[in-house]
Design goal:
Layout (H helix, E strand, L loop, with lengths): L3 E5 L4 H12 L3 E5 L3 H12 L7 E3 L7 H15 L4 E4 L15 H30 L1 E6 L12 H21 L3 E8 L15 H6 L9 H11 L11 E4 L10
Parallel strand pairs: 1-2, 1-4, 2-3, 4-5, 5-6, 6-7
Helix pairs in contact: 1-7, 3-4, 4-5
Length: 249
């Protein structure tokens, strides 16, 4: 691949798997997450995979503009380009009915899950992509495509991220492609509350009869940022084991 990627929320789960996939495809990868120690551990694990690409860990809070700018600057300075941005960071501190939701918490969800994603694209655009092109993938959710009830605030933010993907694809083409992926429940620490009590029961709702893995999402993202997907932009692709095909969530 010979390109540079920035992956947010990459100390574990989907983000870490995406970083591994991009390294396997020959990219240099800057990984970012809020906590330095877990991020450094993830970088060591990724280096241990023995891929040709280099790994750089830069701790930062996706919701802080200065941290976003610093991560993008480091990628361009260290690797000489920034061709790929994976907006994977997401938070969900609100469960239950929206009528009971703390509006400050809802604002934080939208700030991190939507505004920060746009902020990273803006920074990458100014630093590299405006003149050289690139590819962006936003990690959304099937919760942004259908009502969920208990994670409604999170789902609403992911619906906004899906629409943001459409708008950016239109505005940034033809040199910058922008797509999104919409996972179902993936076996990560982030989603553990949705399946840990009874994984078999959670998986039974899926036609594939299993929950997703971070690698399931990472492989799709690897394709979307590759030249094989050169005519794909503005898409949100479900990677949900067929869940929405059943009419449920």
């Amino acid at each position: 691949m010979g390109k540079t990627a920035l992956v947010t929320g990459a100390s574990r789960g989907i983000g870490k798997a995406v970083a591994a996939e991009l390294l396997a495809r020959g990219a240099n990868v800057l990984i970012s997450a809020r906590k330095k120690d877990p991020l450094d551990e993830a970088a060591a694990d990724l280096r241990g995979l023995g891929h040709q690409g280099e790994v750089l860990a830069v701790a930062g809070n996706a919701g802080v503009a200065e941290d976003r700018a610093a991560g993008v600057e480091r990628a361009v300075t260290e690797f000489g380009s920034l061709d790929i941005v994976i907006n994977n960071t997401g938070i969900n501190p609100v469960f239950g009915a929206l009528m009971d939701a703390d509006l400050d918490a809802v604002r934080k969800i939208f700030d991190v899950n939507v505004v920060a994603a746009l902020g990273y694209v803006q920074e990458a655009y100014r630093a590299w992509m405006r003149d050289h092109g690139g590819a962006v993938v936003n990690v959304a959710s099937v919760a942004g495509m259908r009502s969920s009830g208990v994670i409604a605030a999170y789902g609403s933010s992911k619906a906004a991220l899906i629409h943001l993907t459409n708008e950016l694809a239109w505005q940034l083409g033809p040199s910058i492609r922008v797509n999104a992926v919409a996972p179902g429940v993936i076996k990560t620490k982030f989603a553990s509350a949705l399946y840990s009590a009874d994984e078999e029961r959670a998986a039974s709702a899926y036609p594939m009869k299993r929950l997703g893995t971070p690698q399931d999402v990472a492989r799709l993202i690897g394709f979307l940022v590759s030249d094989e997907a050169a005519w794909i932009t503005g898409e949100t692709i479900r990677v949900d084991g067929g869940l929405l095909s059943t009419g449920g969530l």
